[in-house]
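stuck on this chain:
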Amino acid sequence: MPPRTPRRPPDDPLRVAATLAGAHLASARTRRVTGTARPEALTRHLTRKYDFTNPHDAADVLDDIASMLRRGSVHGGPTHFGPFAPGIPREAVAASTLVAAFNPQRAIRAHAYAAHALETHLLQFLTSQLGLDPTTSAAHMNTGAQESNLTALLCALVHAFPAVRDHGVRALPGDPRIYASAEAHHGLEKAAHIAGLGRQSLVRIETDSAFRLDVESLARRLHADRQSGYAPIAVVATAGTTATGAIDPLPALAAFCARERLWLHVDAAFGGTAALSPALRTSLDGIAHADSIAWDAHKWLQMPLGTGMYVTRHPSSLRAAFQTDAPYMPRRDPAHDELVDTSPAWSRRAAGIPLFATLATHGLPALAAQLERHVALAGSLRLQLSSMGFTPVGESPLPVVCFTHPRFTTGTLIPGDLTRALARDGRVWLAPVTLSTGLRALRATITSAETNEADLHTLIDALRAAMG
Protein backbone atom coordinates (compact mmCIF):
# COMPACT_ATOMS: atom_id res chain seq x y z
CA MET A 1 0.00 0.00 0.00
CA PRO A 2 1.29 3.50 -0.79
CA PRO A 3 2.10 5.54 2.27
CA ARG A 4 -0.73 7.72 3.45
CA THR A 5 -0.30 11.45 2.83
CA PRO A 6 -0.13 13.12 6.22
CA ARG A 7 -2.84 15.68 6.81
CA ARG A 8 -1.63 19.27 6.81
CA PRO A 9 -2.01 20.67 10.32
CA PRO A 10 -4.53 23.51 10.44
CA ASP A 11 -3.10 26.98 10.12
CA ASP A 12 -3.02 29.06 13.27
CA PRO A 13 -5.97 31.45 12.84
CA LEU A 14 -4.04 34.25 14.56
CA ARG A 15 -1.16 33.97 12.10
CA VAL A 16 -3.59 33.87 9.18
CA ALA A 17 -5.42 36.95 10.48
CA ALA A 18 -2.13 38.82 11.04
CA THR A 19 -1.03 38.06 7.48
CA LEU A 20 -4.36 39.17 6.02
CA ALA A 21 -4.45 42.34 8.14
CA GLY A 22 -0.87 43.19 7.23
CA ALA A 23 -1.58 42.73 3.52
CA HIS A 24 -4.62 45.00 3.77
CA LEU A 25 -2.68 47.76 5.54
CA ALA A 26 0.14 47.47 3.01
CA SER A 27 -2.27 47.90 0.08
CA ALA A 28 -3.37 51.42 1.05
CA ARG A 29 -1.83 52.96 -2.07
CA THR A 30 -2.77 50.27 -4.57
CA ARG A 31 -6.35 49.33 -3.71
CA ARG A 32 -9.51 51.16 -4.72
CA VAL A 33 -11.05 53.34 -2.04
CA THR A 34 -14.49 51.97 -2.93
CA GLY A 35 -15.21 48.26 -3.08
CA THR A 36 -16.50 46.50 -6.17
CA ALA A 37 -18.85 43.89 -4.66
CA ARG A 38 -22.58 44.46 -4.86
CA PRO A 39 -24.54 43.92 -1.61
CA GLU A 40 -26.84 41.38 -3.27
CA ALA A 41 -23.84 39.37 -4.52
CA LEU A 42 -22.40 39.21 -1.00
CA THR A 43 -25.80 38.10 0.35
CA ARG A 44 -26.02 35.31 -2.26
CA HIS A 45 -22.51 34.13 -1.41
CA LEU A 46 -23.26 34.03 2.33
CA THR A 47 -26.55 32.22 1.84
CA ARG A 48 -24.97 29.63 -0.42
CA LYS A 49 -21.85 28.94 1.64
CA TYR A 50 -22.72 29.44 5.30
CA ASP A 51 -25.70 27.66 6.79
CA PHE A 52 -23.79 27.30 10.09
CA THR A 53 -24.39 23.56 10.04
CA ASN A 54 -21.27 22.30 8.25
CA PRO A 55 -17.94 23.39 9.74
CA HIS A 56 -15.25 25.11 7.68
CA ASP A 57 -11.51 25.42 8.11
CA ALA A 58 -10.79 28.56 10.16
CA ALA A 59 -8.11 29.77 7.76
CA ASP A 60 -10.52 29.49 4.83
CA VAL A 61 -13.21 31.35 6.74
CA LEU A 62 -10.83 34.16 7.64
CA ASP A 63 -9.59 34.41 4.07
CA ASP A 64 -13.19 34.58 2.85
CA ILE A 65 -14.08 37.25 5.41
CA ALA A 66 -11.07 39.32 4.34
CA SER A 67 -12.06 38.94 0.70
CA MET A 68 -15.61 40.13 1.40
CA LEU A 69 -14.39 43.07 3.48
CA ARG A 70 -11.91 43.99 0.75
CA ARG A 71 -14.53 43.91 -2.01
CA GLY A 72 -17.45 45.24 0.01
CA SER A 73 -16.14 48.24 1.96
CA VAL A 74 -15.18 51.85 1.55
CA HIS A 75 -11.57 51.85 2.67
CA GLY A 76 -9.86 54.47 4.79
CA GLY A 77 -6.47 55.65 3.69
CA PRO A 78 -4.52 58.46 2.05
CA THR A 79 -7.14 59.30 -0.59
CA HIS A 80 -10.22 58.84 1.58
CA PHE A 81 -11.27 62.46 2.12
CA GLY A 82 -14.65 61.58 3.54
CA PRO A 83 -15.91 61.57 7.12
CA PHE A 84 -13.00 60.50 9.24
CA ALA A 85 -11.68 57.18 7.89
CA PRO A 86 -7.93 57.68 8.08
CA GLY A 87 -6.62 54.12 8.11
CA ILE A 88 -5.27 52.52 11.29
CA PRO A 89 -1.56 52.33 12.24
CA ARG A 90 -0.12 48.83 12.57
CA GLU A 91 0.65 49.14 16.26
CA ALA A 92 -2.98 50.07 16.97
CA VAL A 93 -4.20 47.01 15.03
CA ALA A 94 -1.72 44.82 16.90
CA ALA A 95 -2.75 46.26 20.28
CA SER A 96 -6.41 45.71 19.40
CA THR A 97 -5.59 42.04 18.84
CA LEU A 98 -4.01 41.84 22.29
CA VAL A 99 -7.05 43.51 23.85
CA ALA A 100 -9.31 40.97 22.14
CA ALA A 101 -7.12 38.09 23.32
CA PHE A 102 -6.85 39.17 26.97
CA ASN A 103 -10.39 40.63 26.95
CA PRO A 104 -10.08 42.67 30.17
CA GLN A 105 -13.38 43.74 31.72
CA ARG A 106 -12.96 47.45 32.40
CA ALA A 107 -16.19 47.86 34.35
CA ILE A 108 -14.44 47.01 37.63
CA ARG A 109 -10.82 47.82 38.45
CA ALA A 110 -10.35 44.60 40.42
CA HIS A 111 -10.94 42.58 37.23
CA ALA A 112 -8.42 44.46 35.09
CA TYR A 113 -5.67 46.15 37.10
CA ALA A 114 -3.34 46.42 34.10
CA ALA A 115 -5.95 47.77 31.67
CA HIS A 116 -7.08 50.22 34.36
CA ALA A 117 -3.50 51.45 34.88
CA LEU A 118 -2.85 51.78 31.13
CA GLU A 119 -6.03 53.73 30.40
CA THR A 120 -5.73 55.90 33.51
CA HIS A 121 -2.16 56.88 32.58
CA LEU A 122 -3.28 57.67 29.02
CA LEU A 123 -6.36 59.66 30.06
CA GLN A 124 -4.45 61.71 32.62
CA PHE A 125 -1.99 62.70 29.91
CA LEU A 126 -4.75 63.59 27.41
CA THR A 127 -6.71 65.52 30.05
CA SER A 128 -3.63 67.61 30.81
CA GLN A 129 -3.20 68.35 27.10
CA LEU A 130 -6.70 69.87 27.12
CA GLY A 131 -5.59 72.17 29.93
CA LEU A 132 -7.56 70.48 32.71
CA ASP A 133 -6.09 69.24 35.97
CA PRO A 134 -6.16 65.41 35.79
CA THR A 135 -6.05 65.14 39.59
CA THR A 136 -9.38 66.92 39.99
CA SER A 137 -11.07 65.88 36.73
CA ALA A 138 -12.53 62.56 35.66
CA ALA A 139 -12.20 60.83 32.29
CA HIS A 140 -13.09 57.50 30.74
CA MET A 141 -13.02 55.77 27.38
CA ASN A 142 -16.27 55.00 25.61
CA THR A 143 -17.69 54.20 22.19
CA GLY A 144 -17.56 57.75 20.84
CA ALA A 145 -19.10 61.22 20.83
CA GLN A 146 -22.67 59.93 20.70
CA GLU A 147 -22.17 58.25 24.08
CA SER A 148 -20.12 61.19 25.39
CA ASN A 149 -22.81 63.69 24.45
CA LEU A 150 -25.50 61.55 26.09
CA THR A 151 -23.31 61.27 29.20
CA ALA A 152 -22.90 65.05 29.24
CA LEU A 153 -26.65 65.68 29.05
CA LEU A 154 -27.33 63.26 31.90
CA CYS A 155 -24.56 64.77 34.04
CA ALA A 156 -25.77 68.31 33.33
CA LEU A 157 -29.33 67.28 34.19
CA VAL A 158 -28.55 65.80 37.61
CA HIS A 159 -26.06 68.60 38.30
CA ALA A 160 -28.74 71.25 37.80
CA PHE A 161 -31.74 69.28 39.09
CA PRO A 162 -30.60 66.45 41.45
CA ALA A 163 -34.14 65.18 42.00
CA VAL A 164 -34.27 64.02 38.38
CA ARG A 165 -32.03 61.06 39.25
CA ASP A 166 -34.81 59.35 41.21
CA HIS A 167 -37.96 61.00 39.87
CA GLY A 168 -37.13 61.58 36.20
CA VAL A 169 -38.07 64.64 34.19
CA ARG A 170 -41.25 65.04 36.26
CA ALA A 171 -38.96 66.74 38.80
CA LEU A 172 -38.06 69.53 36.36
CA PRO A 173 -39.62 72.94 37.06
CA GLY A 174 -40.43 73.40 33.38
CA ASP A 175 -39.85 71.95 29.93
CA PRO A 176 -36.08 71.34 29.48
CA ARG A 177 -33.89 73.27 27.08
CA ILE A 178 -30.50 72.35 25.58
CA TYR A 179 -28.81 74.88 23.28
CA ALA A 180 -26.48 74.12 20.35
CA SER A 181 -25.59 75.75 17.06
CA ALA A 182 -27.45 75.09 13.85
CA GLU A 183 -24.30 73.27 12.66
CA ALA A 184 -23.92 71.02 15.73
CA HIS A 185 -24.03 67.27 15.18
CA HIS A 186 -27.50 65.81 14.71
CA GLY A 187 -26.67 63.03 17.16
CA LEU A 188 -27.57 65.56 19.86
CA GLU A 189 -31.23 65.10 18.94
CA LYS A 190 -30.84 61.37 19.54
CA ALA A 191 -29.05 62.03 22.84
CA ALA A 192 -31.86 64.33 24.00
CA HIS A 193 -34.38 61.64 23.08
CA ILE A 194 -32.53 58.86 24.92
CA ALA A 195 -32.04 61.10 27.97
CA GLY A 196 -35.82 61.46 28.17
CA LEU A 197 -35.73 65.20 27.46
CA GLY A 198 -37.37 64.90 24.07
CA ARG A 199 -36.00 66.04 20.75
CA GLN A 200 -37.81 69.36 20.98
CA SER A 201 -35.70 70.22 24.03
CA LEU A 202 -32.75 70.82 21.68
CA VAL A 203 -32.82 74.45 20.54
CA ARG A 204 -30.74 75.29 17.47
CA ILE A 205 -29.06 78.70 17.64
CA GLU A 206 -28.13 80.56 14.46
CA THR A 207 -24.49 80.88 13.46
CA ASP A 208 -22.26 83.75 12.40
CA SER A 209 -20.69 84.13 8.95
CA ALA A 210 -18.03 81.54 9.87
CA PHE A 211 -20.71 78.99 10.91
CA ARG A 212 -19.90 79.38 14.63
CA LEU A 213 -22.58 79.59 17.30
CA ASP A 214 -23.67 83.23 17.70
CA VAL A 215 -23.46 84.08 21.40
CA GLU A 216 -25.75 87.13 21.19
CA SER A 217 -28.48 85.03 19.58
CA LEU A 218 -27.98 82.44 22.33
CA ALA A 219 -28.37 85.12 25.02
CA ARG A 220 -31.60 86.42 23.50
CA ARG A 221 -33.09 82.93 23.22
CA LEU A 222 -32.08 81.97 26.75
CA HIS A 223 -33.66 85.12 28.19
CA ALA A 224 -36.88 84.52 26.26
CA ASP A 225 -37.03 80.87 27.35
CA ARG A 226 -36.58 81.74 31.01
CA GLN A 227 -39.29 84.35 30.74
CA SER A 228 -41.57 81.66 29.30
CA GLY A 229 -40.90 79.21 32.15
CA TYR A 230 -38.58 76.77 30.42
CA ALA A 231 -35.81 75.01 32.36
CA PRO A 232 -32.44 75.58 30.59
CA ILE A 233 -29.90 72.86 31.36
CA ALA A 234 -26.84 73.09 29.12
CA VAL A 235 -25.12 74.63 26.13
CA VAL A 236 -23.32 72.33 23.70
CA ALA A 237 -20.45 73.98 21.85
CA THR A 238 -18.73 72.28 18.95
CA ALA A 239 -14.99 72.21 18.31
CA GLY A 240 -14.88 71.03 14.72
CA THR A 241 -18.33 70.91 13.16
CA THR A 242 -18.98 68.05 10.75
CA ALA A 243 -19.59 70.18 7.68
CA THR A 244 -17.11 73.07 7.89
CA GLY A 245 -14.85 72.26 10.84
CA ALA A 246 -15.98 75.42 12.64
CA ILE A 247 -14.99 75.91 16.27
CA ASP A 248 -17.57 77.77 18.33
CA PRO A 249 -16.29 80.76 20.39
CA LEU A 250 -15.27 78.75 23.44
CA PRO A 251 -13.97 81.59 25.68
CA ALA A 252 -17.15 83.64 25.18
CA LEU A 253 -19.36 80.60 25.72
CA ALA A 254 -17.46 79.61 28.87
CA ALA A 255 -17.94 83.10 30.31
CA PHE A 256 -21.60 83.13 29.27
CA CYS A 257 -22.37 79.74 30.83
CA ALA A 258 -20.54 80.62 34.06
CA ARG A 259 -22.57 83.82 34.30
CA GLU A 260 -25.87 82.09 33.50
CA ARG A 261 -25.11 79.01 35.62
CA LEU A 262 -25.44 76.62 32.70
CA TRP A 263 -23.42 73.47 32.03
CA LEU A 264 -21.06 73.91 29.07
CA HIS A 265 -20.32 70.75 27.13
CA VAL A 266 -17.87 70.86 24.21
CA ASP A 267 -18.30 68.30 21.47
CA ALA A 268 -14.66 68.16 20.37
CA ALA A 269 -14.98 64.75 18.77
CA PHE A 270 -12.81 65.89 15.87
CA GLY A 271 -11.17 69.10 17.00
CA GLY A 272 -10.00 67.88 20.39
CA THR A 273 -6.95 66.35 18.73
CA ALA A 274 -5.61 69.86 18.06
CA ALA A 275 -4.74 69.95 21.77
CA LEU A 276 -1.79 67.63 21.03
CA SER A 277 -0.01 70.24 18.90
CA PRO A 278 1.47 73.39 20.46
CA ALA A 279 0.95 75.13 17.11
CA LEU A 280 -2.75 74.18 16.86
CA ARG A 281 -3.76 74.21 20.52
CA THR A 282 -4.66 77.90 20.54
CA SER A 283 -7.69 77.11 18.36
CA LEU A 284 -9.14 75.40 21.45
CA ASP A 285 -8.57 78.30 23.85
CA GLY A 286 -11.29 78.23 26.47
CA ILE A 287 -11.94 74.49 26.34
CA ALA A 288 -10.40 73.98 29.79
CA HIS A 289 -13.32 75.95 31.26
CA ALA A 290 -15.90 73.52 29.86
CA ASP A 291 -17.77 71.36 32.33
CA SER A 292 -17.38 68.35 30.03
CA ILE A 293 -15.72 67.42 26.75
CA ALA A 294 -16.22 64.74 24.11
CA TRP A 295 -13.14 63.66 22.13
CA ASP A 296 -12.94 60.83 19.60
CA ALA A 297 -9.61 59.16 18.90
CA HIS A 298 -11.10 57.27 15.94
CA LYS A 299 -11.28 60.47 13.92
CA TRP A 300 -8.13 62.56 13.62
CA LEU A 301 -6.07 60.26 15.89
CA GLN A 302 -6.58 57.31 13.51
CA MET A 303 -7.73 54.76 16.05
CA PRO A 304 -10.16 51.86 15.47
CA LEU A 305 -13.82 52.85 15.56
CA GLY A 306 -15.31 52.98 19.03
CA THR A 307 -12.39 54.83 20.68
CA GLY A 308 -14.06 57.79 22.34
CA MET A 309 -13.31 59.77 25.48
CA TYR A 310 -15.40 61.73 27.96
CA VAL A 311 -13.73 64.27 30.26
CA THR A 312 -15.39 66.33 33.00
CA ARG A 313 -14.31 68.82 35.66
CA HIS A 314 -17.04 67.39 37.92
CA PRO A 315 -16.35 63.77 38.92
CA SER A 316 -19.29 63.90 41.32
CA SER A 317 -21.67 64.44 38.39
CA LEU A 318 -20.75 61.03 36.97
CA ARG A 319 -21.42 59.30 40.27
CA ALA A 320 -24.71 61.18 40.67
CA ALA A 321 -25.85 60.14 37.19
CA PHE A 322 -24.71 56.51 37.05
CA GLN A 323 -23.77 55.05 40.45
CA THR A 324 -25.71 51.97 41.48
CA ASP A 325 -25.39 49.16 43.99
CA ALA A 326 -25.24 45.65 42.57
CA PRO A 327 -24.56 42.99 45.22
CA TYR A 328 -23.25 40.52 42.63
CA MET A 329 -20.41 42.87 41.61
CA PRO A 330 -17.06 42.72 43.42
CA ARG A 331 -16.53 45.10 46.31
CA ARG A 332 -15.47 48.53 45.04
CA ASP A 333 -12.21 50.19 46.09
CA PRO A 334 -13.35 53.42 47.78
CA ALA A 335 -10.15 55.14 46.64
CA HIS A 336 -11.07 54.69 42.97
CA ASP A 337 -14.15 55.44 40.91
CA GLU A 338 -15.30 52.42 38.93
CA LEU A 339 -16.49 52.65 35.32
CA VAL A 340 -19.63 50.71 36.18
CA ASP A 341 -20.54 53.56 38.55
CA THR A 342 -19.43 56.47 36.36
CA SER A 343 -20.62 55.70 32.82
CA PRO A 344 -23.79 54.48 31.07
CA ALA A 345 -22.33 51.12 30.03
CA TRP A 346 -21.88 48.08 32.23
CA SER A 347 -19.42 45.90 30.37
CA ARG A 348 -16.56 47.88 28.84
CA ARG A 349 -13.67 46.88 26.58
CA ALA A 350 -10.22 48.41 27.06
CA ALA A 351 -10.53 50.76 24.09
CA GLY A 352 -7.66 53.02 25.13
CA ILE A 353 -4.84 50.49 24.82
CA PRO A 354 -4.38 50.85 21.00
CA LEU A 355 -4.04 54.63 21.47
CA PHE A 356 -1.59 54.07 24.32
CA ALA A 357 0.48 51.81 22.04
CA THR A 358 0.47 54.37 19.24
CA LEU A 359 1.52 57.30 21.42
CA ALA A 360 4.19 55.17 23.11
CA THR A 361 5.52 53.99 19.75
CA HIS A 362 5.73 57.33 17.95
CA GLY A 363 5.89 59.95 20.70
CA LEU A 364 3.96 63.20 20.93
CA PRO A 365 6.38 65.41 18.88
CA ALA A 366 6.06 63.16 15.82
CA LEU A 367 2.29 63.02 16.17
CA ALA A 368 2.04 66.80 16.56
CA ALA A 369 4.14 67.27 13.41
CA GLN A 370 1.77 64.97 11.54
CA LEU A 371 -1.27 66.98 12.65
CA GLU A 372 0.38 70.22 11.59
CA ARG A 373 1.19 68.68 8.20
CA HIS A 374 -2.50 67.81 7.76
CA VAL A 375 -3.45 71.45 8.35
CA ALA A 376 -0.83 72.60 5.84
CA LEU A 377 -2.19 70.13 3.27
CA ALA A 378 -5.70 71.48 3.87
CA GLY A 379 -4.42 74.98 3.09
CA SER A 380 -2.84 73.70 -0.12
CA LEU A 381 -6.08 71.96 -1.10
CA ARG A 382 -8.09 75.17 -0.59
CA LEU A 383 -5.78 76.98 -3.04
CA GLN A 384 -6.01 74.22 -5.65
CA LEU A 385 -9.81 74.08 -5.39
CA SER A 386 -10.04 77.85 -5.74
CA SER A 387 -8.03 77.66 -8.97
CA MET A 388 -10.66 75.23 -10.31
CA GLY A 389 -13.53 77.62 -9.63
CA PHE A 390 -14.62 76.16 -6.30
CA THR A 391 -15.25 78.46 -3.33
CA PRO A 392 -14.02 77.37 0.11
CA VAL A 393 -16.67 77.69 2.84
CA GLY A 394 -15.82 78.59 6.43
CA GLU A 395 -12.56 79.44 8.17
CA SER A 396 -11.65 76.26 10.00
CA PRO A 397 -8.17 75.96 11.57
CA LEU A 398 -8.61 72.18 11.28
CA PRO A 399 -7.90 70.01 8.22
CA VAL A 400 -11.53 70.17 7.05
CA VAL A 401 -12.08 71.77 3.65
CA CYS A 402 -15.70 72.55 2.80
CA PHE A 403 -16.23 73.97 -0.68
CA THR A 404 -18.99 74.85 -3.08
CA HIS A 405 -19.33 75.80 -6.74
CA PRO A 406 -21.57 78.30 -8.60
CA ARG A 407 -23.06 75.39 -10.53
CA PHE A 408 -24.26 73.83 -7.25
CA THR A 409 -26.44 76.91 -6.74
CA THR A 410 -27.88 76.88 -10.25
CA GLY A 411 -28.53 73.15 -10.07
CA THR A 412 -26.50 72.36 -13.20
CA LEU A 413 -24.09 70.36 -11.03
CA ILE A 414 -25.32 68.21 -8.12
CA PRO A 415 -22.85 67.48 -5.29
CA GLY A 416 -24.30 64.00 -4.82
CA ASP A 417 -23.80 63.22 -8.51
CA LEU A 418 -20.15 64.23 -8.18
CA THR A 419 -19.54 62.03 -5.17
CA ARG A 420 -21.22 59.06 -6.87
CA ALA A 421 -19.01 59.57 -9.92
CA LEU A 422 -15.96 59.67 -7.67
CA ALA A 423 -17.08 56.44 -5.96
CA ARG A 424 -17.38 54.72 -9.35
CA ASP A 425 -13.92 55.99 -10.29
CA GLY A 426 -12.57 54.44 -7.09
CA ARG A 427 -9.49 56.60 -6.56
CA VAL A 428 -10.83 58.99 -3.91
CA TRP A 429 -13.77 59.47 -1.58
CA LEU A 430 -15.58 62.73 -0.81
CA ALA A 431 -18.77 63.51 1.08
CA PRO A 432 -21.58 65.92 0.11
CA VAL A 433 -22.95 68.21 2.83
CA THR A 434 -25.84 70.65 3.13
CA LEU A 435 -25.23 73.51 5.55
CA SER A 436 -27.82 74.96 7.90
CA THR A 437 -28.16 77.89 5.47
CA GLY A 438 -29.24 75.50 2.72
CA LEU A 439 -25.93 75.85 0.87
CA ARG A 440 -24.91 72.61 -0.86
CA ALA A 441 -21.24 71.76 -0.77
CA LEU A 442 -18.57 69.06 -0.68
CA ARG A 443 -16.26 68.35 2.22
CA ALA A 444 -12.74 66.94 2.31
CA THR A 445 -11.05 65.92 5.55
CA ILE A 446 -7.35 65.12 5.76
CA THR A 447 -6.65 62.67 8.57
CA SER A 448 -4.47 59.87 7.20
CA ALA A 449 -0.83 59.67 8.23
CA GLU A 450 -0.01 58.75 4.63
CA THR A 451 -1.79 61.57 2.78
CA ASN A 452 0.63 63.79 0.85
CA GLU A 453 0.60 66.45 -1.85
CA ALA A 454 0.40 63.82 -4.60
CA ASP A 455 -2.84 62.55 -3.07
CA LEU A 456 -4.28 66.07 -3.32
CA HIS A 457 -3.39 66.06 -7.03
CA THR A 458 -5.21 62.73 -7.36
CA LEU A 459 -8.27 64.31 -5.76
CA ILE A 460 -8.13 67.31 -8.10
CA ASP A 461 -7.72 65.08 -11.18
CA ALA A 462 -10.63 62.87 -10.07
CA LEU A 463 -12.81 65.94 -9.49
CA ARG A 464 -12.03 67.28 -12.96
CA ALA A 465 -12.93 63.94 -14.51
CA ALA A 466 -16.16 63.70 -12.50
CA MET A 467 -17.20 67.21 -13.59
CA GLY A 468 -16.86 66.15 -17.22
